[in-house]
Amino acid sequence: MKTTLSKALCALLASAMMTTACSGGKKTDGANADGNTVEVGILHSLSGTMAISEVSLRDVLLMGIDEINAAGGVLGKTIVPKVVDPASDWDLFAEKSKELLTKDKVSVVFGCWTSVSRKSVLPVFEEYNGLLFYPVQYEGQEQSPNIIYTGATPNQQLIPAAEYLMSEAGGAHRKFYLLGTDYVFPRTANKILKNFLLAKGIPAENIIEEYTPFHHQDYQTIVSKIKRFAAGGGACVLSTINGDSNVPFYKEFANQGLSAADCPIMAFSVAEDELRAMDTEFLVKHLAAWNYFQSIETSENRQFVENFKTYCKTKNLPGGERVTDDPICWSYTGLYLWKAAVEKAGSFEVEKVIAALSDLESSSPSGLVKMHHDNHHLAKRVLIGEIRPDGQFNIIHETDGLVSPEPFSEYAK
């Protein structure tokens, strides 16, 4: 079955009885669908270190819900969003998700950003047979019956980015500084990247690995080490820094006289939304690997971008001139995939919705995507972007066709 994301309308969410959890856990009393309304959960940090990234995911979900409600809702029900703020507190993610499933009895939840937040809520969704749509690229090595992963797997972001940097077109780099925030995604991602680089003949001494805590602000010493590492040429940084630490890192990089010409940074967690909070003058030509950029030149994407900007302005949402980016795209796409699966199944029951998602094709702001038939991930194309002075990206490389998701990487061993 194929469904199309409309320019501004379509449908989404709704409710249903929660059934016995796939893990053999507890049974919920049923989704909160009173008459012609249904509650759905939005679980994103609106405060704390991750708010810089997650607030916009709430905003695009609310926009999508408004679109769907204007078009008649889902299976005749109007969507009522239940927005909660886990405040970048990983334990609070689990607590809030349990409340959404057992107290509010939402039919589906859209949320999380970091892998530690996702892993915090995973046992809750399995125990209470909830359904979570997770929109952010991640390290893989996971597959839950209760999570739909619309972000990239390692072979849809990490590996293509490293391959590009090693290619002649990407600069034929032979020295890699792996720098990340100290939690699950960066450590697992860098394990995969390091094993991949070693397998491709990069000497171990040409691979440096380092981590900083969340909200780290002082990058002077680390950038000094990168500068020494980059001396003589052929070096690059593979960055899995997450959240607001990106601002001081890029600033210090420029302060010490480093540029993309000396040592390009390939980012896996920096997109247009993060760049709004940064001085892009000194970031020009640094890189990022994603599956969507705002600069995609299609009528569907131009409409999506225009709709989001208009929505944020009309609602007087803070943040100045708003942009779209990869997680925003996949959060929005996940909303419509869920709606399509509900309508295909004719039901809000978790098992029936999951079955309807199998092999489901859909258009998205990035183009055609397809749900894998059984691993709960999306097939999509991979893009490499180069930062422009205006905080947007020039797309300088893309894969031919859709890349099938491989959640379990051979390089994670």
Task: Tell me about this structure.
It is a single chain. The protein is α/β, with parallel strands linked by helices. The chain has two domains: 2-151 and 296-380, Response regulator (Rossmann fold), CATH 3.40.50; 155-294 and 384-412, 3-Layer(aba) Sandwich (Rossmann fold), CATH 3.40.50.2300. The chain has eleven helices and 16 strands. Strands 8-7-9-10-11-15-16 form a seven-stranded mixed β-sheet, with helices on both faces. Strand 13 (367-371) and strand 14 form a beta hairpin. Helix 1 packs parallel to helix 10 and helix 2 (90-102) runs parallel beside helix 3. The protein is globular, with a radius of gyration of 21 Å. Mean pLDDT is 91; it is low at 1-30.
Please supply descriptive tags for the structure shown above:
413 residues, Rossmann fold, 2 domains, 7-stranded mixed beta sheet, 5-stranded parallel beta sheet, 11 helices, globular
